[in-house]
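ok so I'm stuck.
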Amino acid sequence: MERPGKFEHHQYIGDKRTQVVYDIDAIGPEDEHLIAELMEAETFICFAPDTLPEARNRCYKLFSKQRASA
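replied:
not stuck anymore, here's the structure
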């Protein structure tokens, strides 16, 4: 998936509503609608540094399909 314009330099994007973090580089085509919906709802967050440990530090959990493949 191509990274959204606001997040062209970020790999991990979180959803504030569900406390789920998505790895944009690993999201499958069948789940791209989740990112589009997240951008439309404007309930996203990015992390600094842009790492999964930082997202976990803020109590975000990796998207379940990505967790299963990791």
